[in-house]
Amino acid sequence: MRVIAVVAAAVLVFAGVGRAESGRLEWPLRPPPTVTREFDAPSPDWQRGHRGVDLAGVPGQPVYAAGPATVVFAGTLAGRPVVSLAHAGGLHTSYEPVEALVQVGQLVDSSTALGRLAPGHAGCPTAACLHWGAMWGPASRADYVDPVGLLASTPIRLKPLAG
C-alpha cells in the first residue's frame, strides 16, 4: 500500500504542467435568450420531467452549436426536426425543432449555424422555442444535465465542505 502512495506522489510531483480545456458551452441562440421552461430532472430517469431547457426565439432564427462537436444526427425524429451533437468527453447536446443545415459527421463549433429554428414546439409561449438538451454518456444510460449550468457565462459555485 505504501509503494502505491509513493508512486502516486512521484507521478504528481514530476507531472508536467497541463492545460485543461474549459469545456464550457455557448448559448445556441444569439443574443442570449430567455429561458421559457427550465430543466426538471426526472427521478428516477424513466419518470416524467423536462430533460433540457426551452429558449425563446423567432421562426427562422439561426441555431448555433453550443461548442466544438461532431454532428451525430440531423433529421426528423418522432415527427420533429432534430440536430444532435457529440462533444469531447462524452457530452451530447440536442436541439429541436431545428431545420438542419449540417450533415452527420460534420465538425462544428460555436460559430457554426446548425440550422434554422422552426415554429411549433409544444408549450412554447412565444412564436418559436428551442428545446436544448444535454446528457453525459450513451443514450441507453444517459445522465441528463441542465445545459444552462454548462455555459461559459454561468458562474461556477463550489459547495462548502461542512454544513
TrEMBL record:
Gene3D superfamilies: Glucose Permease (Domain IIA). Transmembrane segments: none annotated. Keywords: Signal. Signal peptide: none annotated. Residues 49-136 form the M23ase beta-sheet core domain. InterPro entries: Cell_wall_metabolism_enzyme (IPR050570), Dup_hybrid_motif (IPR011055), M23ase_b-sheet_dom (IPR016047). The keyword DNA-binding does not apply. It comes from the Bacteria. PANTHER family: L-ALA--D-GLU ENDOPEPTIDASE (PTHR21666:SF289), PEPTIDASE-RELATED (PTHR21666). This is M23 family metallopeptidase.
